[in-house]
Design brief:
- One of its GO terms (molecular function) is ubiquitin protein ligase binding.
- This is Cullin-4.
- Residues 1-74 are annotated as: Disordered.
- The chain is mainly α and 283 residues long.
- The protein has a domain at 86-282: Cullin Repeats (5 helical Cullin repeat like, Up-down Bundle).
- Helix content is 67%, strand content 1%.
- It contains 12 helices and 2 strands; from the N terminus they run H-E-E-H-H-H-H-H-H-H-H-H-H-H.
- The protein has helices at 6-16, 31-41, 51-57, 86-102, 111-123, 127-147, 156-180, 182-189, 198-212, 214-232, 239-252, 255-282; strands spanning 21-22, 28-29.
- It has a two-stranded antiparallel ribbon.
- Strand 1 and strand 2 (28-29) form a beta hairpin.
- Helix 4 (86-102) packs parallel to helix 6.
- The longest helix is centred in the last third of the chain and has 28 residues, at 255-282.
- The chain starts with 5 loop residues before the first helix and ends with a helix.
Length: 283
């Protein structure tokens, strides 16, 4: 058996060994030397660091976030300069409009202009005086309207129709006045809990002057009780009129003190009499 020559041994050993890799400086490295270099550089053997792995190992720098500031814009409504005698002239227009409303005549002034005039008075802190002026003007006309019912020598049903007509007119008139002076309710009344709204102020005036006109109040009660008795006896009555007047007493807050007591008394008397009749008929 012949031994391999030196040349064949070298060639076989060289062919079986791993290929050498060039280092960064151009020199060739053996696998062992390359592993040693990797260990010194902190990388595992036989693994080359990739750009993605290098990026993951880095810490991202966090920039400080700027603080958010809210921009608040304050719009201060500048008070317009009032012309000379503005308050006096404005009230003259409002008084004329209120009188026209209560007298059921056309208002000669623009409603929007009247509303703006009231708003300007409220803006200049003149609302208290304006409220008192409106209250006094309303009282004059409400009192006059109820006084026209005194001394009416008409049938009870006709008289009740007149009372109901005065009440409906009053409600419509107060709604119109409130629409003109709405700024009083929104700015003056809401800031003063002791002050009534324009609607409640009107109800208070109507209630006061109805109680002063004792004849009107008592005759109205008598007429209502008479209508209820007729209906119990089977007669036809104006239920719409009856309903409106009862709602009037409720809105004025005098239903219990003025109407309910007498109504219960009359009801008790009526059914006591009906019971006696039934007992007599059964005998």
């Amino acid at each position: 058996m012949s031994l391999p020559t030196k040349r064949s041994t070298c060639s076989s050993s060289s062919s079986s060994s791993a290929p050498m890799k060039k280092a960064r400086n151009g020199l060739q490295q053996t696998p062992q030397s390359r592993d040693d270099d990797n260990d010194r550089e902190g990388f595992p053997a036989e693994e080359d660091p990739t750009p993605a792995a290098a990026n993951l190992s880095r810490k991202k720098a966090t920039l400080p976030q700027p603080t958010k500031k809210k921009l608040v814009i304050k719009l201060n409504r500048a008070k317009p300069t009032l012309p000379t005698n503005f308050e006096k002239n404005t009230w003259a227009k409002l008084q004329s409009a209120i009188q026209a409303i209560f007298l059921m005549k056309p208002v000669t002034f623009d409603y929007e202009g009247l509303y703006q005039a009231v708003d300007n008075l409220c803006l200049h802190k003149l609302e208290e005086k304006l409220y008192q002026q409106i209250e006094k003007e309303c009282e004059v006309h409400i009192s006059a309207a109820l006084k026209t019912l005194v001394g009416q020598n008409t049938d009870l049903s006709v008289f009740l129709s007149l009372v109901e007509r005065r009440w409906q007119d009053f409600c419509d008139q107060m709604v119109m006045i409130r629409s003109i002076a709405l700024s009083l309710d929104r700015k003056y009344v809401i800031q003063n809990p002791c002050v009534r709204s324009l609607w409640e102020m009107g109800l208070q005036l109507f209630r006061n002057h109805l109680s002063l006109a004792y004849e009107v109040e008592q005759r109205t009660l008598t007429g209502l009780l008479s209508m209820i008795e007729k209906e119990r006896l089977g007669e036809a009555v104006d239920r719409t009129l009856l309903s409106h007047l009862l709602k009037m007493f409720t809105a004025l807050g005098i239903y219990m003190e003025s109407f309910e007591t007498r109504f219960l008394e009359c009801t008790s008397e009526f059914y006591a009499a009906e019971g006696m009749k039934y007992m007599q008929q059964s005998d």
